[in-house]
Amino acid sequence: MAPLKQVVSSEGLFDMLREAMKELPVIAPAERKDQPGFHHFARLQQAEDFVPDYVTTTLPPKKAFFQPSETLFTFTTDQPPALELVSDTEHFVLAGVHPCDLAGLDALDLAYSQPPAEVRWPADRGLATVVGIDCMPDDYCFCSSVGTCLTRQGCDLFLTKVDRGYLAEVYTPAGDTMLAKVRTWEPTEADIRDAEQWRERKVERMTAHLEADPAEIADLLEAGGLAHLWKETAERCYSCGSCNTTCPACFCFDMHDEFDLSLKTGIRRRTWDSCQLLEFALVAGRHNFRQEREQRVRHRWHRKFLYLYRRLGRAYCTGCGRCSRACTADINLVDVTNALIAHARKAADHA
Amino acid sequence: MPDRLVRAPYPMTKVFYRPALAQVLRVDQLTQSENLLALRMGTGEPLNHEPGQFVQVSLFGYGEAPISICSSPKGKEGFEICVREVGTVSGAIHDLEPGDWIGIRGPYGRGFPVVELEGKDVLIVAGGIGMAPLRSLVGHIRDNRRRYGRIIVVYGAKNPAAILFKNDLKVWFEDEGIELYVTVDSPDESWTGRSGVVTSIIRDLDLGSSASMNAVVVGPPVMYRFVAMELFRHGLTEDRIIFSLERRFKCGIGKCGHCQVNDLYVCRDGPVFRYSELLGRSEAVEVWAPEEQ
Q1: pLDDT tens, residue by residue, A269-300
Q2: Alpha helix locations (H) across chain A?
């Protein structure tokens, strides 16, 4: 069913956030004080800090649900020890989420809910009202190649820029409640057309493209014969893990304990982890199942475009371009993937 | 195209990553570096594990480590784990004493296919600490001996001092239902048994023309390929060879990514796999090992 649509003025959007902030924390893209010109999802101090036309953020909004480092539970050294779960209980609004990042949240919803399901992720997801907003691409964006351009899953309200403000699509009662706090108008045909044109322009302006769809990429990775390309990419890679830590669809983690200074209590912490780091696949006896950098590079592509594609039915890449923007060696995911595609097609032609 | 796996029938368990508490009942020193810990859940409930499954063991302040369960599901109070002193966490768990409390998550993973193996002959091959999970399988078979055909156990240890579960081995040796072969790589003067690697024992076994023979193999990564070669010589096929893989699981439930072998999560899809499921998965047993210092 098509969502209910209403138009809100540009000022009305800020009013809506202002109203929400009276009741709940609002996390939304704001300019980084430490790095002007860059944006991050942060708790707004004032509604004016929200930047509706931001291009991207350094870290994806998954950090609102799974912080880069978070406490799972506390323990004591008593016998028996006392364990206490630490979990967020405060409701909040996550606003200004682009379609690619909605797809990232949806991908993690799927991954974390596979049995045996973990409780933390869905519990934290349930605390948020999510407001999506449509965007314009930069040179790194390629959402039109992975089918995440129009994602609306998991959002309560979605906004698209139109001439007289924003066209708001209402997906849930929570989204409706937020929007009801401000003045809205019935959309005219011009508003609907504006929003459609925005979406068309977004695709037209996309300069980065994968030369094959995710199904073909999965097939060609499975077919293999790409060793020299993994090697070439690995020769440039520093194994820093920036690609993983900025990825909205990566969900690996590590866990470790920390004692309090008193040595009487402590916490178990979980932190984001990266399969590109040397220690990631280390096992007992110092055996490392992906000791070579090219094995780790290959693993990243295989996991995103083959393993999870086959297992969960979707590529674990949202086309956001963060990994390429963040890469310390300027390795571009689109360029590498297109080189793989070109090589595989050439090999198929010769076969 | 990889064949689809038959997944363990997971109940819709919901995991908080907060362990349940368990208490150490007994500690038996097995070797210089390995202890056998008998544990009981704080609730008094049985663990309800399958042979081949593992638990995530927490020692608070040190961390959590995956350890396979080495007791048969039936019988005795609680359950047992065999802990080798290797890292910070396992070293601390190894040093626990009766009465100490620890955390347990699980049991997790897909264990040995004990139901599918019923009515069949089973060759059990253990290398080193691989004997620990296999002890739960041998225990289960002995508890249900009439359901299984011929049972052969081949166990290889580095040297006589490294042999685990000596008390169990004596019992199995007396058990007419089990053909037991124990070998050591490096014998000392006191050793009167066999010496050499497990493959040399397997080579000399008379497996007859048993089409129902299945092999279950657990040991260090380097062992799998050589054992498989010998088993092929006896006419076993990949679907009748069962391995259990070891990785450093962090979550134990297929989320954290650390145990991934190509597309498989060892913790969730395994740790027990048929060889046929691992074919084409280059990260399963081909391991880079550091050169000896």
Answers
A1: 999 999 999 999 888 777 788 989 999 999 99
A2: 10-23, 99-112, 120-125, 173-179, 189-205, 214-223, 227-236, 242-245, 293-302, 308-312, 322-326, 333-350
Name which of A255, A289, A307 is nearest B250 (Cβ-Cβ). Answer: A255
Chain A residue with minimum CA distance to B253? A116
b/e sequence A188-197, b meaning 16+ C-beta within 10 Å:
eeebeebbee
Contact A286 B103 (CB under 8 A): no
Task: Mark yes or no for CB contact B288/A259 under 8 Å.
Answer: no
- Contact flag A268-B62 (C-beta cutoff 8 Å): no
CATH numbers and ranges of domains, chain B: 20-108 (2.40.30.10), 121-278 (3.40.50.80)
Distance from chain centroid for Cα B111: 9
Residues near A263 by beta carbon (within 8 Å), at least 6 away in sequence: A77, B61
Mean pLDDT of chain A: 95
Distance (Å, whole) CA A29 – CA A60: 10
Could you give the CA distance from residue A104 to residue A109 in angstroms, rounded to a whole number?
A: 9
Q: Do B250 and A254 touch (CB under 8 A)?
A: yes
Verify whether the Cβ–Cβ distance B18 to A111 is below 8 Å. no
pTM (predicted TM-score): 0.91
Nearest to A311 among B14, B103, B263 (CB): B263
Decide: A148 and A319 in contact? Cβ < 8 Å: yes
Structure confidence at residue B285 (pLDDT): 63
Tally A–B CB contacts below 8 A: 150
Query: Which residues from B are below 8 Å from A288, CB to CB?
Result: 287-288
Task: Locate B165 and state its tokens.
Answer: 């579960």
Residue A70, phi then psi, degrees to nearest 5: -145, 155
ipTM of the complex model = 0.89
